[in-house]
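Co-fold these.
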Amino acid sequence: MTAKNKKRAMRIATILGLAYLLPNLLGFLVFTAGPVIFSFGASLTNWNIMNSPPLEFVGFRNYQQVGQSSQFWTFFINTVYFMAFSPVGIVGSLVVALLLDSRLRGMTLFRTLLYLPSFTAGVAIMIMWKGLYNPDHGLINACLRGVFDLFSLPFQGPGWLQSTQNLMGLHPEKIAFAVKDIGLGAREALVFMGFWAGLGGGNMLLYLAALTNMPDELIEAASLDGAGPWAVFRHVKWPQLAPTTFFIVIMSVIGGFQGGVDSAQVMTGGGPAGTTTTLAYHIFRKSFVEYQFGYASAVAWVLFAIVFAFSGLLWKFGNKETNY
Amino acid sequence: MRALFSAILVVLVGWTLFMLPTSRDPVPAGKTIVTWATDDTPIRREQIALFNKLNPDLDLRIDPTNNDPNKVVVQSIGGVGPDVFDMPGTTLKVFVDSGIALDLTEELPKLGYDPLAEIWPAAKPLFAIEDRTYGVPANLDTLAIYYNREVFGEMKLPYPSANPTWDEIIAIGKKLTVKDASGRTTRYGLLFWWDWRDFFAMCGARLFTDDGRKLTIDTPEALEAVNLMSSPIYVHKLAPTASESNSMASVGGWGSGNESRFVGRRAAMVVGPRYFTGNFRRAPDLKVGVVKLPLSATGSTRLKGRTIAVNSRSPRRAAALRFIKFVTDGGYNRLNNDLADGVGPSLKYTEEPKFQFNPDFPEEKYNPIWRQSMLAAQPDESSPYISNGQVDEAVGFQLDLVNQGIKDSKAALAAAQAAGEKLLQENLAANAALAKRYAEGSK
Amino acid sequence: MKGSIAKGAFVYTALVGLAIMSLVPFFWMLFTSLKPLSEVESGSFLPKDWRPGNFQEVFAQIRFGRYYLNSIFVASWVTYLTCLTSALAAYSFTRLEWKSRDFLFRVYLATMMIPGVVTQIPGFAIIVNLGMPDTYAALIVPSAFTAFGVFLLRQVMLGVPKALDEAARIDGANSWQILWEIVLPLSRSGIITLAIFSFMGNYGSLIGPLIMLKSDGLRTLPVGLTFFDSKYGSQTNLLMAASVMSIIPRLILFIVGQKHLVKGIQLGAVKG
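Predicted complex below.
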């Protein structure tokens, strides 16, 4: 094949590839890429929707301010804190999916039941959780109190949504650790609620779909070779699940860095003492409470850079694992 | 697979042909549609029905919002907004400075309305900036104390006096608080919103110096306010903790948890606005009394309200202005006062006998107290150099620490002052025009 | 044999425990929807005074039927378009070799990393400039081209062995036939999952439709239900009644969809 022909073949292949992509690409460019590029432009201005001061180009001044703002780093730590728990959630969904993939009767019923939190999730359920976490009258502390009473231990219930304590002992006012700040507070309350909502939810469904798609021959062959359930999982199922795991991890990183807006709005207002204010909620407040759209866009793009770098690393690592 | 996708497409297209023609409510011949961006509630529907009855050539329709102005901002900045819209009065500056709200200074006199003479005088900052007028309050409200007369009767306690002091309210509240065997409170003496601005106002604590250039949230008055807010909870134990109040908020049948718990007799007294009255009417067995909120010598209650403005880009300006006129008229004001959605914008309708005593609601003998409280109320202070949201952030952060017993009130307020000042300086650094204004020292 | 009984017992115990945790909030919603307003705050789980009439009251106070229909209609279109365009795009990203393919895919991914808050205003401006505000199209079109769907199906298609389409190609099939006859049938569970995700997500979304809509006849359920949730006098019992009813289409879709998430296609069967 001559170089010219090769070039031509490549051009044809590109046209064909773009043709398949086109229906999606058109909508994507107009409705997704366009606004995203706009927001980058906005991040270089002092846009605050008001005419005083007049709209002007300020270069990277907003970014400079983001870097200097102590708030940004506090909220960044909050965000990372929430994300630190997401591996636990992912493993939980995988376990549930494996349970549901067993060939026992009634699994379709259980799938539906376990997926229910995803139907009911939303504002109404967050309101219910607020009641459950009530330190004095809520069901959760009542149960804990019962357990403690059983063993005749003195009970000092966690403050949950009222408390700035956390499992890592992060200090509410400065970036520091202290033993007296260790406990169960608002951050954990939101994490546990997330577990509840997520366990039988989307990630479980993705794993389940991948498991059901897995050829039976593979598992049967391994079982015949005398491999136990763990060995089958480790050497047959887990490698086959790699693309799904990769997807879930990447989406958890992307989603995790943008999470926490709804729960902050409905349940905590970002408090107590800012402990449940994530970067995404910070961006929301900067945009729609203070109307600092330029600054908020800059925060969003700093967030973008972080997520991009982080998922890029995962991509490299994941590529090795999954051989793509 | 291909057959499935094609079949679904055919079904969807067919369905679309059915949905499209039925999706629009027909516009009656000769009528102009006017949109009002507001929250869709039963009260709003009554107000709209009245407007449409009085204006047969117009068809006013709700453009639903969920109680925050973001939709109007996105729509107006993005291209098409509603014809008229509601906003919290405290956000007036944003809507004016962005050019969304139409200047009504010349328009209102043409409609035969003098807003400064007719609207509750203290409400001026909610609809006017300097001497320009940009809207009319949709309704206004302030706080007073409701008490459950039946609970007082059962306890054989006299009702609070018409002008109580805090000491009196707390003494009564202690007697009304009931605990069960395990020490948990089954009935609170008093409920109130955990909102430090309410207590700052009551104690006469200022947020800013007169020129708005400096925060003043560490003054003795401010300390008194914070102590006053926390003592019923932590010292006298007659009110629920802040977190409990928070966990109840908007669970209930009546908007906020406080109203519901008051109706459910889990509290004997509640600090609340007049719109609670409208909600209490849905509990026909409830017998309520109202007394004024205790204030310090320099204190006041807070005046809050929604402001209605006209979208400057509305092509139906004349119709929109007729709606503004409607809001200022007797029909709307009387309806609003009767529905107890706060009070109407124009002061004079509360002088009428039907407001003083409405025979439809013979139990409600306390409307004169609302009128007096409204006359004493003041809107929130503001500073051009720091937003309300930022002040809330600084103070709220520290009060959350007070709540948990991590910090005492005095240290917390000092820290809030420092944090607020820092935010203010950051605002100046980010905005040269603002910094210039600050340096010149004019408000 | 003994081992499998023990295993079964373990699986069931775990699942029943999880199922109870999932069901409690649902029943809380259901029982709240059957209470009179004055009991919503009573603290008891079951109503003392049962009010099934709340469900009729929902229809009396708002155009619930219309909102219901709108929600299903919009979500169906979005789901359909998302699945179709994402499948085509994912096919292009996994099966066709072309210039800057991987670069473009990364651009797709990257756009997901920008929080939606900062793209709201330009997004709305685009809808206005296309003359679409306050139409069904404004609700459907912007949601129908998600990077999420492309990414999801790309991962699924990567799991479909390439040997199969190469065999078909040798047999003379073109790319269009390979897509519909080999790759898509083998990606069925992924497409069903994506369909479930798109429907659930779109059916429940509030802020997008709230900003796009004015007309009453176009409102979707989440927008319509704000009527019961006003700051000034919410009717939580009716809100819950409406929410319980609004679960039904999602439930049906899920039950039908997950039925097809079964091992049906054996790898050997598709050859030839």
